[in-house]
Records
---
Amino acid sequence: MRATYGIILGIAAGLLMGIGGYTFVYARGASYLTNDPAACANCHIMQEQYDGWQRSSHRTAAVCNDCHAPHTFVGKYTTKALNGFWHSFYFTTGGHPDPIRVTPRNAAITEQTCRDCHEPVVRAIDHAPPEGRALSCVQCHRNVGHLH
């Protein structure tokens, strides 16, 4: 009886690894471990963002990961793993918003990246407006990374 469970568990693990491996190859999974912006367009839902980046002013200065991932190894690959999982989940289930929208977590990462790269300018103009809300780089400069 115990051997039967072992065989069933082995078959299930083999199927899971086989399907997972096939999906990883089919979806060009290794490309997501690079900094190549074309990897972001592997999934057709991101084609508009990729095309917008190619026409943007930041095309020669930054790639997707520069703005959309933290600049630490752990932060970058944690963000890429989370985003990859949710992108594939919503793409597979058809639950993604159309047009695609940035999550609050990813918006905060992008905002912080703007502030880090443009620190001297931000320091010179950043202050709390009278209503107490913090200034947002991407609110005013929405088309810098992706032309809309």
---
Amino acid sequence: MEVDLFIPCFVDQIEPQIGENLVAILEHVGCTVHYNPKQTCCGQPQFNSGYTKETQELARKFLSDFEGDRVIVSPGGSCTGFIKRRYASLFDDPKEKERAENLSNRIYDICDFLVNVLHITNLGATFNGKVTVHDSCSALREYGLTTEPRTLLQNVKGLEIVEMEESTTCCGFGGTFSIKQKDISSAMVEQNVRFAVESGAEYITGTEFSCLMNIKAYVERNNINIKPIHIVNILSNFEHV
């Protein structure tokens, strides 16, 4: 299968290794990967801040950057969920709305793509350690990702999933929320990390890098002994040929 690769801005700028590992996974399962280097922001930050016109401009560019009928795969539910659930509502013009709906129907988070499109649940990966899972708001509530991440992790050799209390509670990031409501955000991430540590996990993983970025900042600032790691970096831990 030929697929297009969509890498969110923060992954590209802060931890591009996630994108590289995503390519490794896709090629490992037999996909031919296409990457358009002209791709930019999907418009979610602008949309969440109320800048509709600017969001529409970025959405139009995104539609042009991913013209065609190939499946689009991304390493996260935040931007992907926004595109799937919100893009069509941005446009009144029937042709633009149709283009947005078409794209919305062919963009996938990697976990959803592997489990529900390719029907692959075991990548032959190995990862030694106890891992707890944070279900990000965007992946769970916006995108609709539920059992898929754990289905894939259960088949990673050497990995033990240990559930933490309130794994579906927000970590406090929420984009600009963490800036505008710093005190509330800090209390939320403190609780999230405390629950993760109390589970006995050595690692905390998830599908959404923005959440893990927020958690990592708190962990490092407070010298807490748990390691945030994106699920792609776990699933790609197989022998590359």
---
Amino acid sequence: MKNTHNNSLNTMITPVSVSVHWSESGLFKSMVTYDFVTFESMAFEAAVSNLAGGYDKTRITVNLSDHSQYECRLDLGVGDNELGFADHCISIIEFNQRRLADNCTTLNNLNDQYISMIRTITKYEFDKSAVFDARTRMKEICEHNKKLQHQRDEALLESKKNIEAIKRADEKQFQDSLMIPQWAKSVIIATHTEYDEINSDPYADYYRSKTTRTIILAWSKHTRMLFSELRKACGNHSDLKFLADKNQSKEHRQNYSMGNGYFLTDKDFIREGWIVKKHIFSDSKNKASQVPLGELVAH
């Protein structure tokens, strides 16, 4: 806070205009002066734009009716943030009144700069009803937005439930149609994964992949993990024949705690690409339920 004001004056002072030095809000132009009413209206609009959280830092100089100036930074947003300059000043006064009441503190116990600021803004004359109306409007907007978000969340949840139900029905139909040989003790499955842009957060070094394709390549008579068998199975599908070549594929042996077992991938695989793996039937009486929905090549 910085102000140029003659404290000897006892008359009330009104803001005339506001010069914006810079702002994180796109509504304001830097180094432009707005009349006070216009600025307050724009500040409220900027605050509303942050309903999802956060605030727009805005550095201003307020030009007052006694030709003095008051410089400060506003944090335009909802909640504990500010709706404009008048709201900024009234919030400071309200906070100071609560602190004095709660702690029985007198102005003499406070920092000189803080005392000067309180005495200065106390002389500013605002339409307080407009500030309280703005707060009420913001509260109503927030409540309405909260209801809309709740409705969107419920609709999204219902949509996900419907998608999952359809997926389960398709999977059940697929599994019921499978003709798994009696001798099969495991199945070889290829899955293709891609980068999940929606659920990943590169800034937090958090990356996720999503399965975009599943192919049931072959049934196996045993449970041994043989890369030669995985490569042979890749020959059953035109998109995977290249993995049968040792020079174009990579063997992974993660047969340790928290590892992914034995599997085959394309040579440059890191997070995305083809993965070919054997899945052992843990329940010999219900093999079909252990086979995921996918393209069926095995016969």
